[in-house]
């Protein structure tokens, strides 16, 4: 509860905070995997650094949503726009051979496209939702 304006945090913001904190934990488990970034795979220390930054951003966003900090909704929108552009660029630039090399298996292209579109839709909807509720932050 925000004591200044006596406004209650929307349930959707609370759910997004929890999702981002879960994202923090899930990035920790991906720490040794290749990191796809703008059409390239990063391995080793660069991948660990990128996963570390991503996990910290998820944690900051989650905690910031719970505290309704103004910088959080801007960080969330910026990070999601970055993620959306990364997914789109990776879709068109990473070949099936690269996926096979780095993942060790060949994913179904139809299934990949379905999940990419599903995730992009979720990201877009959450960006719009948070943007419309920006007045709760501050």
Give a summary of the structure in a few sentences.
With 138 residues, this protein is mostly helical.
Describe the fold and architecture.
The chain has 138 residues and is mainly alpha-helical. The chain has a two-stranded antiparallel ribbon with strand order 1-2. The two termini are 12 Å apart. The model has no long low-confidence stretch (mean pLDDT 80).
Question: How would you describe this structure in keywords?
Answer:
single chain; mainly alpha; 138 residues; 4% strand; 5 helices; globular; two-stranded antiparallel sheet
Question: Span between N and C termini?
Answer: 12 Å
The percent range for strand residues is under 5%
Radius of gyration (Å):
17 Å
Q: Specify the helix fraction band.
A: over 70%
Low-confidence stretches: none
Give the helix/strand layout.
Elements: H1 11-29, E1 35-37, E2 40-42, H2 44-67, H3 70-93, H4 96-103, H5 109-132
Antiparallel strand pairs: 1-2
Helix pairs in contact: 1-2, 2-3, 3-5
């Amino acid at each position: 509860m925000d004591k200044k304006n006596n406004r209650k945090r929307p349930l959707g913001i609370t759910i997004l905070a929890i999702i981002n904190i879960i994202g923090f934990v899930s990035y920790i488990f991906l720490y040794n995997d290749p990191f796809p970034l703008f059409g390239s795979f990063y391995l080793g220390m660069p991948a660990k650094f990128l996963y570390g930054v991503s996990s910290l951003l998820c944690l900051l966003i989650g905690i910031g949503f719970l505290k309704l900090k103004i910088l959080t909704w801007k960080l969330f929108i910026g990070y999601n726009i970055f993620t959306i552009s990364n997914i789109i660029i990776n879709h068109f630039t990473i070949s099936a051979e690269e996926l096979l090399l780095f993942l060790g298996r060949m994913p179904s292209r139809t299934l990949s496209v379905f999940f990419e579109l599903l995730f992009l839709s979720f990201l877009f909807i959450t960006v719009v939702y948070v943007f419309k509720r920006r007045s709760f932050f501050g």
